[in-house]
Design goal:
Helices cover 28% and strands 17% of the residues.
């Protein structure tokens, strides 16, 4: 899902039992499907790799159900871009995409791969060439069929550099992707990836550059959603009124800074049609305003509580309150392109000048916990104290590192964060800690709304450390490492907005992708994390809890493993 706007972007996770991939494969027909069960034994070791999906973010259902009707309202911030699957890489636009599209594969409440989406199966003999078989009779909202070509054209569009799609990076491992990347002052050598083709209406063949055994899991991300022919006829109009294949459909244009209402798609091909008649996506620039509206009955559903409500929301809303672990992390990222922050010793010093636990307790009232790893506790490979040496408060060592690096303390540090997410209070506390512990003043740079804040990151416009929130795209340690710090993920084609690049890190990730078994893969991903801990392109800050509240008009609030609310399941009573 990528970057997030809201204050509740991370939280503490209860680690639940991690099931082996052997058991998952047997229970859900695995990645390979029942008809290819004989191949599971040969491939399961590499299939396991880094996923080891933790039973995290389990579904806090609220009951309800039954007959439903009417439309309910849902709070979000202004999305960064028009609604295109390959160009929506942040949380606010993602909320809309999950209502309008259904992905190829899905995940159950334990994080296990399931085939409740468009794909019937995703299979491979060698983890390099994959066959994606689609279910029949799936349609877009304009009535046209969803075919293999709908995916092939969408992925080629997303990968082509001249289309400037923010999720282009997710197609990087397909053969021929490099030919779609234009050299400086030139044109791409091709417009279609050689490793991608539709062999018939229901079959996609994908050939990767190298083995990648968690490839089926990545297909649960919205960047891999299909596009109808109507998109290619009018991409601009489509971005305002998208045509997807999901449980809700858009019948009006998106109004910037206001929102729009989507309605139930009655010909939806999925197993779980929408319960409500529609969802009004309503934009709020401040969470306090939205929270007051829920209390007053003027807003039905909110998933971004302001800091001053964290300690009282449960008492205020009673059984209309839900708290769940969120598969995400909040970090303080560094502009490694700025000479002032180019020295890893400076970045380590700033990290060691922060008392994360004090901020979590005083500002977030315990609804956050200090992060000491670059990955979430929900994924296999998480180590609780991975970066303890550089993530714990150590004022003496921090000042020594700043002196060694020749850091100019006479100039203040700019601390960047997006407006409208409830971040000012905790960023102020962080700045005060840096002033006290490191003897350097700070400027708060929190005037930009989320939709303005993200493009400035892509343009290398950060003049100091900046708040970065990330939620996993799919349940894997890989999702917390490569998309944020891999060279191939450099913005704007990806989400590496620190512009950190390390051949050693890239190699460790590649070694993990090709590892023969889960233990070897985990070790390689942990080796990649250790490189980040030394180089510190960002410093982990918090894990969080999602705290949701809703009006008496609705029920059946289901929290999904990827941090979304199942909008189709919500009932209007």
């Amino acid at each position: 899902m990528g970057p997030c706007a809201d204050v509740s972007w991370c939280r503490h996770f209860s680690r639940r039992a991690i099931r082996s991939w052997e058991a998952i494969a047997l229970r859900t027909n695995g990645i390979f499907g029942r008809r290819r069960a004989s191949r599971v034994a040969a491939s399961i070791g590499s299939l396991a790799l880094v996923i080891g999906l933790a039973a995290a973010c389990g579904g806090g259902g609220t009951g309800g159900g039954g007959e439903s009707g009417g439309t309910y309202s849902y709070q979000l911030g202004e999305p960064e871009n028009p609604f295109l699957p390959a160009n929506t890489t942040e949380s606010e636009g993602h909320k809309v995409l999950t209502a309008l599209w259904t992905q190829l594969v899905t995940f159950d409440q334990d994080g296990n791969l399931t085939y409740d989406g468009v794909a019937e199966s995703v299979t491979s003999d060698d983890n390099t060439t994959w066959t994606v078989t689609l279910k029949p009779d799936w349609t877009f909202h304009d009535g046209t069929p969803v075919t293999a070509e709908s995916y092939v054209r969408a992925w080629n569009y997303g990968a082509l550099s001249t289309n400037a799609q923010g999720a282009s990076y997710f197609f990087e491992n397909i053969q021929g992707y490099d030919d779609l990347q234009a050299p400086e002052d030139g044109q791409p050598a091709a417009t279609e990836m050689s490793g991608l083709r539709a062999t018939d209406d229901s079959t996609i063949t994908v050939t990767l550059k190298e083995p990648f055994s968690i490839y089926p899991v990545t297909l649960g991300y919205t960047a891999f959603d299909p596009l109808p022919d109507a998109f290619f006829n009018d991409p601009t109009g489509f971005g305002r009124r998208p045509i997807g294949n999901g449980p809700f459909m858009a019948q009006e244009d998106w109004v910037p800074n206001q929102g729009f209402t989507v309605v139930r798609y009655d010909n939806y091909s999925g197993s779980e049609p929408a319960q409500a008649d529609g969802v009004e996506f309503r934009v709020y620039t401040e969470p306090t305003t939205a929270y007051n509206d829920v209390q007053a009955g003027n807003l039905d559903l909110m998933k971004t509580l302001p800091p001053d409500a964290l300690g009282t929301a449960e008492q205020t809303f009673g059984d209309r309150y839900l708290q769940e672990p969120r598969p995400s992390i909040t970090s303080l990222a560094f502009p490694t392109y700025d000479q002032r922050y180019a020295d890893p010793r400076v970045r380590q010093a700033i990290s060691m000048g922060i008392d994360r636990g004090a901020i979590a307790e005083s500002i977030f009232l315990g609804s956050r916990t200090a992060a000491r790893s670059f990955v979430s506790p929900v994924v296999e490979g998480y180590r609780e104290d991975a970066c303890a040496t550089t993530c714990d408060l150590n004022v003496e060592q921090a000042n020594q590192l700043l002196d060694e690096a020749g850091f100019d303390r006479s100039q203040p540090i700019d601390l960047w964060f997006n407006a409208g997410g409830g971040h000012e209070e905790w960023m102020l506390a962080l700045g005060n800690q840096l002033r006290t512990n490191l003897g350097v003043e700070f400027n708060l740079r929190g005037d930009l709304q989320f939709a303005q804040y993200l493009p400035l990151q892509d343009e290398r416009g950060m003049t100091g450390p900046f708040r970065a929130g990330w939620i996993m795209d799919y349940p894997s340690m890989y999702s917390f490492l490569q998309p944020l710090y891999g060279t191939a993920a450099l913005a704007p084609a990806g989400s590496n907005v620190t512009f950190y690049s390390s051949p050693a890190f890239d190699q460790a990730i590649s070694d993990g992708n090709n590892a023969p078994d889960v233990d070897a893969a985990t070790a390689e991903y942990q080796r990649a994390e250790d490189i980040l801990i030394t180089d510190m392109p960002a410093t982990p800050l918090f894990y969080e809890l999602d705290q949701m509240v809703w009006s008496p008009r609705i029920s059946n609030i289901e929290y999904l493993v990827n941090g979304d609310i199942d909008l189709a399941a919500v009932t209007v009573d």
